[in-house]
Amino acid sequence: MKFDTDCLHAGYRPKNGQPRNIPIIQSTTFRYETSQDMAKLFDLDAAGYFYSRLQNPTSDAVAARLCALEGGAAGMLLSSGQAASFFSIFNLAGAGDHVVCSSAIYGGTYNLFAVTMKRMGIQFTFVDPDCTPEQLDAAFQPNTKALFGETLANPALTVLDLERFAAAAHAHGVPFIVDNTFATPWGCRPFEWGADIVIHSTTKYLDGHAAAVGGAIIDSGNFDWQAHADKYPGLTTPDESYHGIVYTQKFGQGGAYITKAVAQLMRDFGASPAPMNAWLLGMGMETLPLRMARHSQNGLGMAQFLQDHPKVAWVRYPGLPGDKYYALAQKYLPKGASGVVSFGVKGGREAAERFMAGLKLCSIATHVADAKTCVLHPANTTHRQMNDAELAAAGVAPDLIRLSVGLEDLDDLVSDVEQALAGV
């Protein structure tokens, strides 16, 4: 099936007399006739469900849909995008290990990696997404376990050169993990450019309506864990917490990573999504192609308006001709560069705050990428924990305004922005 059809049908095909929509299995537990039947589940010898902290049929159906959209081999849903970021790394790295990461990432992810996971003994080296091949190569260490980056960085709107970063990761025998939240699989499928694992904050465009917080991890099934067995003993040696199972042997190259993440990390951390939230995500994905086309159309239109406004200091939108990342956007995001526009108002931080206070239709909200237009000043909010040097490395100027252009009529949005700029 083609992409638009998979948005509606992948992951769930009802049989005769069954509901057309994915059912909401709002149950914590599942009944079995014998303890032996359940024992097979605990031994990972049979597929099924026993406790929704690990797996739930609704969540698995929606994960299968997203897996199909990304072109992956296996996937899982989580309770948030932050949980997905954490699980994606912690499933591979532990105390004493190292990860290379693009510096142009979401502020919450940066804090998770640079502060919280550092306390767990995992070290991160942050590299400029525009670094030279030599600088990128030099960032790797013998104990490096992964390379991490965002397709379309939040909020810097840097477009990562996926092919180049994938080649660097594979040259050092590690997987390339890509946060594809802003691009969505409608805009870019990172596996086609060499990525090995994709994560999402499904809270954003995939849900599309700011209705449910969630996250997801999708494994391409392409990375050969067994070829790097010494580097990934958690996947290639017996797991005593599951009766000595070796994940790569039992579940193969395409199933080992996700099975381990569910069996170990979901079991122990419990970052499971509510079935209702999973269901809302599944419904949101049904209209993903329609919404993303409109978001991208409105985003480009707003960027063009802002570019010509005398009170706007600068505009960043990779779909805008002349943008620093326009060429990479044409390569990786040919259908559209989403609805997120970053710009600065002349007059700096104070002018940015006055502009935002003057908006009437656009909402000031700690959110992005949903049907309604919202706006945020990252230096005061999502990236507030960063100092000036860290802000610069992340591509976040003090005057940067992140405008998430929604599905409203573009003329109405432009009128609102125009009257707010008039008050600056």
What topology does this entry show?
Elements: H1 3-9, H2 35-42, H3 57-70, E1 74-78, H4 81-90, E2 98-102, H5 107-119, E3 123-127, H6 133-139, E4 144-150, H7 162-171, E5 176-179, H8 184-187, E6 197-201, E7 215-219, H9 233-236, H10 247-269, H11 275-285, H12 288-307, E8 312-316, H13 326-332, E9 340-345, H14 348-357, E10 363-364, E11 374-376, H15 388-393, E12 400-404, H16 410-422
Parallel strand pairs: 2-3, 2-4, 4-5, 5-6, 10-11
Antiparallel strand pairs: 1-7, 6-7, 8-9, 9-12, 11-12
Brief synopsis:
It contains 16 helices and twelve strands. It has helices spanning 3-9, 35-42, 57-70, 81-90, 107-119, 133-139, 162-171, 184-187, 233-236, 247-269, 275-285, 288-307, 326-332, 348-357, 388-393, 410-422; strands spanning 74-78, 98-102, 123-127, 144-150, 176-179, 197-201, 215-219, 312-316, 340-345, 363-364, 374-376, 400-404.
Description:
The protein has 16 helices and 12 strands. The mean pLDDT is 95. The protein has helices at residues 3-9, 35-42, 57-70, 81-90, 107-119, 133-139, 162-171, 184-187, 233-236, 247-269, 275-285, 288-307, 326-332, 348-357, 388-393, 410-422; strands at residues 74-78, 98-102, 123-127, 144-150, 176-179, 197-201, 215-219, 312-316, 340-345, 363-364, 374-376, 400-404. The radius of gyration is 22 Å and the shape is globular. It is 39% helix and 13% strand. The termini are far apart. It has 424 residues and is of the alpha/beta class.
Helix content: 25-40%
User: How many strands in all?
Assistant: 12
Main β sheet profile: 7 strands, mixed
Order of helices and strands: HHHEHEHEHEHEHEEHHHHEHEHEEHEH
Using only CA atoms, what is the Rg?
22 Å
User: Can you tell me the overall shape?
Assistant: globular
Count, helices: 16
Q: How far do the termini sit from each other?
A: 50 Å
Low-pLDDT runs of 5+ residues are none
Q: Could you tell me the mean pLDDT? A: 95
Structural class: alpha/beta
Strand content: 5-15%
